[in-house]
TrEMBL record:
This is UPF0215 protein K8N75_02730. HAMAP family: UPF0215. It comes from Methanobacterium spitsbergense. Belongs to the UPF0215 family. It comes from the Archaea. Pfam families: Endo_dU.
Amino acid sequence: MKKRNEKKKFRIIKKEIRILGVDDSPVPSHTKDEVLLVGTVFRAGSWLDGVLSTYIHGDGTDATNKITEMVKNSRNLGQLGVIMLDGITFGGFNLVNIRQIFESTGVPVIVIMRRTPNFDRIKKALQRFEDFEDRWSNVLEAGEVYKVNNSESVCMQIHGIEREDAEDIVKLSTTRSAIPEPLRVAHIIAAGIINGESKGRA
């Protein structure tokens, strides 16, 4: 029996692999307020099966636990092939530890970014927090940044999955924009709920 913290290997990526894409809503002007997180359950990039939601604190430290709880409490848990996150910062500077999410849920994690992060800028921004070391450790835990060459290139970080498999999943789920469909739709839903109407791109 495989341990939960071992990398998951997909010999063949199923065309209807279940992906949970997670994005946050626009951050309120007072970042201590709660920020909405929306998760969309997609069959690859073509079929929406469900929507999950939870709340985190702006600039808080609860994003990892809240996403983990949302996943573990979902009836979709047993079917999920991968969790896909729009970056590792939610609600301002509420950072996610992708290793902890994988180890707690048993579901591999793929982080998607439009471009390579500026780690110097991120580190400087985090230094204003008293728990800087803890927040910065989440950035380090996310690991190496890989480029995915698709119709439009994006970057990714991964945990619990082989790079080649993660690339295949990203390409399979990218059907209508540069961003995988589970994340694009999560962004639209979250922005629409908070602003009354969605605008801008994920």
